């Protein structure tokens, strides 16, 4: 079964003009790789973070967000994570997509131009309206949280 296609208007910014657009690495991939549009290598020391530009601005379809998520290989091999993961690009945002990168590893990490630094997933958004009430329905869990469902 083929997933439905949604069109995303994208504008390449001057510092990202020579980089490929985000693409799915395989036919079954959920995320598209985002590339670093840095002019020079950026070194992120252990515990440090940096905002990495992608050189892209987008206009998302109505009712959608673009989720920015970490790449598992970078997390496993280098401790590179996205501290606000998943990051959200709202449908009405028209600025450059930037990726906040945190080095949770033990060695300095260098981001180079064209490096795959994150993945983007287009996702539908449901809008919520609050219905204030004096009571809520009962459940077996009730108000238990933070480990209340058991320990293994």
From TrEMBL:
A UniProt-annotated Pfam family: dUTPase
Binding site for substrate: 71-73, 84, 88-90
Catalytic activity from the UniProt record: dUTP + H2O = dUMP + diphosphate + H(+)
Cofactor(s) needed by this chain: Mg(2+)
EC number: 3.6.1.23
Every dUTPase-like domain range: 19-150
Class of the enzyme per the UniProt entry, highest EC level: hydrolase
Annotated coiled-coil segments of the chain: none
MF-aspect GO terms: dUTP diphosphatase activity; magnesium ion binding
Pathway annotation: Pyrimidine metabolism; dUMP biosynthesis; dUMP from dCTP (dUTP route): step 2/2
InterPro entries linked to this entry: dUTPase (IPR008181), dUTPase-like (IPR029054), dUTPase-like_sf (IPR036157), dUTPase_trimeric (IPR033704)
Domain of life: Bacteria
GO BP term (any one): dUMP biosynthetic process
Keyword line: Hydrolase, Magnesium, Metal-binding, Nucleotide metabolism
Function: This enzyme is involved in nucleotide metabolism: it produces dUMP, the immediate precursor of thymidine nucleotides and it decreases the intracellular concentration of dUTP so that uracil cannot be incorporated into DNA.
Family statement: Belongs to the dUTPase family.
PANTHER family named in the record: DEOXYURIDINE 5'-TRIPHOSPHATE NUCLEOTIDOHYDROLASE
Protein name: Deoxyuridine 5'-triphosphate nucleotidohydrolase
Species assigned in the record: Lichenicoccus roseus
Gene designation: dut
